[in-house]
Amino acid sequence: MARTVDVEDHALKRDAYLDAAQTLIQRVGYDQMSIQDVLAAVGSSRGALYHYFPSKTALLDGVVERMVVAAFDATERVLADASLPAPEKLRRLFGGMIAWKSERRDLVLALVRVWLSDENTLVRDKLRVQLDSTLVPRLRAVIAQGVREGTFAVTSPEASTRVIVTLLLGAQDLACRLYLERQAGTVPLDAIAAALTAFSDAMARVLGAPPEQLSFIDDAVVRAWFA
Length: 227
Prior knowledge:
12 helices, mainly alpha
């Protein structure tokens, strides 16, 4: 007889491992975190953990994936608001993502060095796949709305969405590198602001919209993360 899986129990146990890993990453860093640390925090065996996560890298992948899903779930109300024009939806979407990360600043910063490590290329690739299933459909719908409204001038919402996602990934990589450079004292705040604003300006140009309509990088955001 096939074994029946309790879906709710499975999800709770999986989340317990992710909660422990997330806390440890934030407290001691991913490199210093060990599988044994996670087992001790959960009170579990290695075999039980490997049923959900076969490696330390898989745990990291799960933490990042859960963060992505939660960040976008937090913006659903904005995207579903029929009264908002497309440019405002995009501005609030990106601004909401920044706000969500700001509330978890310590964890996000703990992941910066991990994100840039050559050893974690697979995690970055998996995040790109995750963005494909979460961000792309949301962006495509908003861009199509903007075309209908006449606020965006694009010939293909699908192609434009792919370009915007590529820009967002590039902005994320750049922001991580700029953070490390700022910590080393090698880059001024105004240079950081200019570099990140260039990405939002590029998005506006792709969509054929005035840059000020999609601006979501300001001095407060830059200072909160880089000062």
